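Whiteboard transcription, Tuesday session. T.W. wrote the C-alpha cells on the left side:
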C-alpha cells in the first residue's frame, strides 16, 4: 500500500466499504486538503442513504457468523492486522501527518498506538472472563458471562484519524461485534488506507464480508448511526456539543453510547516540583499536535512561590519552538487542521484579552514561505484568572493559560472547577501532595498523573473522563465490557425447584 494506491481506491471506489468490497454511492464529494500547504490531496464520494443501509445490513448479517468464531480465532485476525500495520507504519504515518497536519513523529506514534492496541486485543481474546457467585439455594450454581452486542458504530475525530478507531474496533472485534466506522470528513483518506490494510487481512482469512464497514460522510451520516436501532452501541469521539447530540439521539431509542469528548486539562506545579520535568511536561502537553489533542494541557496552575520561575522558563522554551512542515522532523509544531480552526484560535485570543488576560508569549498567524496554507499559528501563553469564561472553554489550539495559587486545596479546586474532566496532572516530589491529588478529595478527572503531563496515555489503562467529557472508557483495563452485554446465569442441578421468596405450590 502506497499513497497513490490510497488515492486511486478513494477516487475510483468511493468512501463506502463493507470490508473487501467497495460500494457504489451517489453521495456528494468530499475534497481532502492538507493543512501543510493547502493543496488538494484527493477526493472521496460520500455515503448516500442506500449505501449506508447496505453497509449496516451487511454488518448485521456478518455478525451472525462472526460471533460464532472463537474469540482466540478473532484475536488471530487482529494479530495479523497488527503485523500488517507494522509493515505499513511508515506510509500510513506519513499520510496521517500529511492529511491531519501533526508532526511526522506523532504520525508514526499514532500508528504505533494502533499496533499496541492490536497486541492488547490479542491477549484479551483469551481473557473475556465473567464471575462465579455462590447461590443461596442448595445445588445451584451462578455465574456471569459477556456476549457481543452486535453492530458497533464508531464516530471518530480528525485529530487522531486512525488510532481512536483502532481502540474501539480491535476490542469490539475480539468481543465478537462487527463495526461500522464514520471517520471525520476532514481526514477521509486515512480511513480509506486503514480499510485497505484490513481488507488484505480479511481476504486471506475468509472473514465474513461486513465485519469492517466504512461510511465516509458528513454530519448527516453520524445522525443516521445515532438513530439506527440496528446499531446497539455508538462510540463517538469529538466535541462536547457533538457528544450531547449523539447521546440524546441514542438514548431516545434506549441504545448505548460510549462518549470521549472535550478536555480542559490542567497541570498543577507545586513549589516541590522537579522543574525540568514540569517544564518539559507542560511544553509537550501544550504544543503537541498544535494543541489539537483532547488531552492537551490548556491550564497551568502554579504555586505562587515558583510562578515567576515557571513563567520565565516557559517563555524561553517557547522561543525555541520550530513551527513548520510536519513532515520535517526538525519542526516541533505543525499547522491547525483548517482555517476554521485558525479563526477559533484568533477569536479565543481576543476573548482572553477582553477579559483582562495578558499574553507573555504573543499569538498570531504565520505568513510567508512555508506557511501558504494559512493554518500555521504561534503557540501562545496568557496570564489569566480561573473564572475567565475563555479559561472554562476548550479551544482546540495551542493557547496556554497560567493561573496562580497559594495552597494545594485551592489548586485542586481550580483544577476541578471546569465543565470538562478528562486528564490532569500534578508536578511534585512531595508524597503528601501527590497522594492528596489522587485521593477522593483530589482530581475529578478520569486520568490523574503525578510527574507526567496530561498527554500520552498508555494502551493498558482505560482512557476517558468525567462530566462533559462523557464518562466513556476506551482502550485498556476492562474497557472491553462496554462492547458486550452482561448476562447472569443460574443452573439448578438438584432434583427440586426452590421458588423465590419461599413460595410453594402444592401440585
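and on the right, the sequence the group agreed on:
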Amino acid at each position: 500500500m502506497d499513497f497513490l494506491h490510497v488515492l486511486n481506491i478513494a477516487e475510483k471506489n468511493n468512501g463506502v466499504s463493507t470490508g473487501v468490497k467497495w460500494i457504489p454511492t451517489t453521495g456528494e464529494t468530499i475534497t481532502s486538503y492538507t493543512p501543510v500547504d493547502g493543496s488538494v490531496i484527493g477526493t472521496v464520494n460520500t455515503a448516500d442513504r442506500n449505501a449506508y443501509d447496505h453497509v449496516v445490513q451487511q454488518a448485521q448479517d456478518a455478525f451472525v457468523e462472526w460471533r460464532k468464531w472463537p474469540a482466540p480465532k478473532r484475536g488471530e485476525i487482529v494479530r495479523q492486522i497488527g503485523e500488517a500495520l507494522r509493515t505499513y507504519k511508515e506510509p500510513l504515518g506519513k499520510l496521517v501527518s500529511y492529511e491531519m497536519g501533526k508532526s511526522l513523529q506523532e504520525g508514526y506514534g499514532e500508528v504505533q498506538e494502533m499496533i499496541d492496541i492490536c497486541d492488547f486485543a490479542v491477549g484479551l481474546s483469551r481473557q473475556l472472563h465473567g464471575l462465579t457467585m455462590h447461590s443461596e439455594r442448595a445445588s445451584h450454581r451462578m455465574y456471569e458471562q459477556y456476549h457481543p452486542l452486535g453492530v458497533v458504530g464508531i464516530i471518530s475525530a480528525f485529530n487522531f484519524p486512525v488510532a481512536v478507531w483502532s481502540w474501539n474496533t480491535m476490542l469490539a472485534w475480539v468481543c465478537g461485534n462487527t463495526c461500522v466506522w464514520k471517520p471525520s470528513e476532514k481526514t477521509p483518506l486515512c480511513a480509506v488506507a486503514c480499510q485497505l490494510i484490513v481488507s488484505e487481512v480479511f481476504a486471506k482469512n475468509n472473514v465474513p464480508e461486513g465485519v469492517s464497514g466504512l461510511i465516509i460522510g458528513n454530519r448527516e451520516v453520524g445522525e443516521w448511526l445515532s438513530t439506527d436501532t440496528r446499531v446497539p452501541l455508538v462510540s463517538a469521539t469529538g466535541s462536547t456539543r457533538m457528544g450531547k447530540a449523539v447521546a440524546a439521539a441514542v438514548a431516545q431509542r434506549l441504545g448505548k453510547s460510549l462518549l470521549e469528548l472535550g478536555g480542559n486539562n490542567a497541570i498543577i506545579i507545586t513549589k516541590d516540583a522537579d522543574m525540568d520535568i514540569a517544564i518539559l511536561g507542560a511544553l509537550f502537553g501544550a504544543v503537541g499536535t498544535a494543541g489539537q489533542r483532547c488531552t492537551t494541557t490548556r491550564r497551568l496552575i502554579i504555586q505562587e512561590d515558583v510562578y515567576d520561575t515557571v513563567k520565565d522558563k516557559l517563555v524561553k522554551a517557547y522561543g525555541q519552538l520550530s513551527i513548520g512542515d510536519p513532515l520535517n522532523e526538525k519542526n516541533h509544531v505543525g499547522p491547525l487542521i483548517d482555517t476554521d480552526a485558525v479563526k477559533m484560535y484568533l477569536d479565543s485570543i481576543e476573548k482572553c484579552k477582553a477579559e483582562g488576560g495578558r499574553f507573555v508569549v504573543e499569538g498570531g498567524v504565520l505568513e510567508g514561505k512555508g506557511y501558504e496554507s494559512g493554518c500555521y499559528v504561534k503557540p501562545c501563553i496568557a496570564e489569566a484568572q480561573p473564572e475567565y469564561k475563555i479559561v472554562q472553554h476548550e479551544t482546540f489550539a495551542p493557547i496556554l493559560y497560567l493561573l496562580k495559587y497559594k495552597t494545594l486545596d485551592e489548586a485542586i479546586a481550580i483544577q476541578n472547577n471546569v465543565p470538562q474532566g478528562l486528564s490532569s496532572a500534578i508536578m511534585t516530589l512531595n508524597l503528601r501532595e501527590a497522594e492528596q491529588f489522587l485521593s477522593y478529595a483530589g482530581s475529578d478527572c478520569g486520568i490523574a498523573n503525578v510527574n507526567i503531563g496530561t498527554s500520552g496515555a498508555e494502551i493498558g489503562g482505560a482512557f476517558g473522563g468525567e462530566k462533559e467529557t462523557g464518562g466513556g472508557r476506551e482502550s485498556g483495563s476492562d474497557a472491553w465490557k462496554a462492547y458486550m452485554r452482561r448476562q447472569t446465569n443460574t443452573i439448578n442441578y438438584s432434583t427440586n425447584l426452590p421458588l423465590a421468596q419461599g413460595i410453594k405450590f402444592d401440585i
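Someone added at the bottom: The chain is about 40% helix and 20% strand.
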